[in-house]
Design goal:
about 25% strand; alpha+beta; four-stranded antiparallel β-sheet
């Protein structure tokens, strides 16, 4: 099989499945309709549960700034091979806000895990080429308008090679920063903030009678 056969079959996104993002830090980018992704996976591999499915789903929450809480989903997508067996897992991570800080105060979204899962499926599908033309367009827009700049140090975000050999794209670093910290941060500043959060938490602990208790601030 041609190595690019699946990629090229899934890359094109029809105009009716595209939506321009207006406002916010991602202004000018293009979003892809989530149901279109499901439809294309079904057209290519067969109905969900028969031609493709997700496995090894894990969910977690992480505290953000000013009371915000982010929700994350990680999963593996597998699809039917021509011989009838299942493919190797294609990993995807997704996120959404469980508690978001808005003008009127904190807002809790009871659909955050569903949104995080949908995001994870889309990111797994992206590795197969699903919607690749839109992602390429977003990448060109990203570098042209220099939208991906760290709001802490001012440096431009760039792709980072992780210890496990996976590439953490600048786009994904920006999205993670917005969801986890409520701000666009480079990988270095994210590590600094995480370290500061850890140190602040450790400072809030004190020994009382030989037991570690958390102080009420």
């Amino acid at each position: 099989m041609d190595n690019l056969a699946i990629y090229n079959d899934l890359r094109v996104v029809p105009e009716e499945a595209k939506k321009k993002i207006t406002g916010g830090r991602l202004n000018g980018f293009t979003d892809i309709n989530s149901m279109w992704r499901i439809k294309r996976l079904t057209e290519k591999f067969g109905p969900c549960g028969i031609g493709w499915k997700t496995i090894n789903e894990k969910y977690r929450t992480e505290p953000g700034a000013d009371g915000a809480v982010a929700a994350f989903c990680e999963l593996d997508l597998v699809y039917r091979l021509d011989g009838g067996g299942w493919s190797e897992p294609v990993h995807g991570d997704g996120g959404s806000m469980l508690v978001a800080k808005e003008k009127g105060g904190l807002y809790t979204d009871d659909e955050c895990f569903k949104k995080a899962r949908t995001d994870a499926i889309g990111n797994a599908g992206k590795l197969l080429g699903l919607g690749a033309d839109v992602y390429n367009e977003n990448d060109r827009t990203k570098y042209k308008k220099e939208l991906y700049k760290c709001n802490k140090c001012g440096k431009s975000l760039h792709d980072v090679m992780l210890r496990n050999g996976e590439l953490w794209a600048a786009h994904d670093i920006a999205i993670y920063g917005l969801r986890r910290f409520g701000d666009m941060l480079c990988d270095e500043c994210q590590n600094i903030v995480l370290k500061e959060e850890k140190e602040k938490k450790e400072e809030s602990l004190s020994l009382v009678g030989g037991e570690i208790v958390e102080q009420t601030v």
